[in-house]
């Protein structure tokens, strides 16, 4: 006869560590042997563990065999599957009696607002389909997703995890992660692609193995390389000062200037110290407002204080397409990873720079308040040196240099004059300079080619120029009634032939 485990009033340090691991890891429920016995597999692992809840709890993993107290697999069942709060007295006991297990199974510890009974009696099974295009005969419609719905295999929230889903087509109509169903199908070891998978919830036919394989293939296209990048690489962020892209480590953003980012080294050098900054260390973290005196000492503030909205005009620059007949977006398994619904005919689909695709109705409001992809944190717009907050003097200097490259007068060297831009339009302001001694040498040098001399003389006769001497500058103008070509800061007068 086994001895009854001692009752605990608080969790031990080792058990608290196991609870942390259970809440931060993903496990797959491969099989149920009854209401309290299950076969689990860690996500990405190959070894299966049998877990039984009772008096006492047991698990076949090496950790439980060594410590003889609830491991992370037992904690995962209690905290994830049965939704026990981690500070509930049943969550850190070595075992539970039959009456206590019944309370856990019935969910008496949960608030009424979170019970599945609130979904209504019609939510227990899917609704039979009626002339729905593309559905098999005898199949049911998919149940609408609720905020509290979880995957029956990994026990993680469907809308929170944002992973592609499939649903039970001939039974309950509940949704399951496609990746979880693949592991479930591998465990069933079906040989024929036409065989039907069993639903992990209602045990009715879920779908054919062939359909699931097609969904797995297409759903893989919804994942991009940006999701696999290190979290401390701020994708899409260009440092305004040193031009590093992407910024790695701590990223800083100006709370006044739009889409203005800096790296940690530039902030330490005092760049853009006139405005308050916000920082974050990973792409998906919230922006934290920094103390004005010390950038290295962040001071938490309300999230709305450091929100990162951008204008509707910027949103229009992100491409969107209308789903038409024959589009690949209609393939099985392709769906918006925000609402987890398929793309339909006539719907608008927006593609972000990280190649993620969403319904415009789902993603637009998120982008208007965050300026980043909701899946991988890729920043859409990062200000460059020629953006609207750049100094006008810098912009005008670059415009002068670009326009001077296309202006050419034979025998005359062109130089940009360092003058302030026009306050009204900031247009090009330059002068054509010619060295007078150089022109004199051209006229006196007998070795100069006649052809070149004639060409230079024609340029001097037909063009109004500023002749630069050693000490003074004189303006020589050949009077002519010919047509005159004028530019801001440059006057060129040509004789009629």
TrEMBL record:
Pfam families: SWIM, zf-RING_2
Protein keywords: Metal-binding, Zinc, Zinc-finger
Domain named RING-type: residues: 151-203, 336-376
GO molecular function, one term: zinc ion binding
Superkingdom of source: Eukaryota
Boundaries of every SWIM-type domain copy: 49-82
Signal peptide as annotated in the record: none
Keyword Zinc-finger listed: yes
Matching SMART domains: RING (SM00184), ZnF_ZZ (SM00291)
Keyword Zinc: yes
Protein name, entry field: Zinc finger, SWIM-type containing 2
Lineage of producing organism: Eukaryota, Metazoa, Chordata, Craniata, Vertebrata
């Amino acid at each position: 006869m086994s001895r009854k485990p001692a009752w605990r009033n608080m969790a031990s340090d080792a058990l608290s560590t196991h609870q942390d691991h259970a809440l931060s890891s993903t496990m797959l429920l491969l099989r149920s042997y009854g209401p309290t016995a299950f076969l689990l597999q860690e996500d990405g692992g190959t070894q299966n563990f049998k877990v039984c809840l009772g008096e006492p709890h047991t698990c076949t993993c090496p950790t439980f065999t060594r410590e003889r107290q609830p491991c992370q697999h037992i904690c995962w069942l209690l905290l994830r599957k049965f939704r026990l709060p981690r500070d509930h007295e049943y969550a850190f006991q070595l075992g539970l009696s039959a009456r206590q297990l019944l309370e856990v199974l019935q969910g008496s510890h949960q608030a009424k607002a979170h019970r599945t009974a609130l979904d209504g009696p019609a939510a227990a099974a899917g609704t039979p389909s009626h002339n729905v295009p593309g559905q098999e005969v005898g199949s049911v419609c998919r149940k609408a997703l609720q905020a509290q719905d979880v995957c029956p295999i990994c026990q993680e929230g469907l809308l929170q995890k944002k992973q592609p889903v499939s649903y039970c087509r001939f039974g309950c109509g509940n949704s399951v992660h496609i990746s979880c169903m693949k592991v479930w199908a591998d465990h069933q070891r079906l040989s024929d692609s036409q065989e039907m998978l069993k639903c992990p919830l209602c045990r009715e036919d879920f779908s054919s193995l062939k359909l699931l394989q097609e969904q797995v293939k297409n759903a893989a296209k919804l994942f991009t390389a940006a999701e696999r990048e290190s979290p401390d690489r701020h994708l899409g962020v260009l440092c305004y000062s040193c031009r590093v892209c992407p910024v790695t480590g701590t990223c800083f953003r100006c709370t006044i200037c739009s889409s203005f980012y800096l790296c940690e080294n530039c902030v330490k050098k005092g760049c853009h110290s006139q405005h308050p900054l916000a920082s974050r260390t990973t792409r998906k973290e919230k922006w934290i407002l920094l103390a004005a005196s010390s950038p290295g000492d962040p001071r938490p503030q309300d999230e709305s204080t450091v929100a990162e909205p951008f204008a509707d005009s910027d949103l229009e620059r992100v491409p969107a397409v209308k789903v038409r007949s024959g589009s690949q977006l209609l393939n099985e398994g392709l769906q918006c990873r925000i609402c987890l619904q398929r793309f339909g005919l006539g719907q608008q689909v927006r593609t972000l720079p990280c190649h993620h695709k969403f319904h415009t109705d789902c993603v637009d409001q998120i982008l208007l308040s965050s300026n980043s992809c909701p899946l991988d944190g890729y920043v859409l717009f990062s200000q460059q040196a020629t953006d609207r907050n750049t100094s006008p003097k810098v912009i005008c200097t670059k415009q002068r240099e670009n326009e001077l490259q296309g202006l050419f007068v034979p025998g005359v060297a062109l130089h940009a004059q360092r003058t302030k831009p026009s306050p009204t339009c900031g247009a090009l302001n330059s002068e054509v300079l010619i060295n007078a001694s150089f022109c004199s040498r051209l006229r006196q040098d007998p070795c100069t080619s006649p052809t070149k001399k004639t060409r230079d003389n024609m340029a001097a006769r037909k063009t109004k120029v500023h002749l630069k001497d050693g000490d003074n500058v004189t303006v020589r103008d050949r009077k002519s009634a010919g047509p005159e070509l004028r530019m801001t800061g440059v006057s060129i007068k040509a004789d009629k032939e």
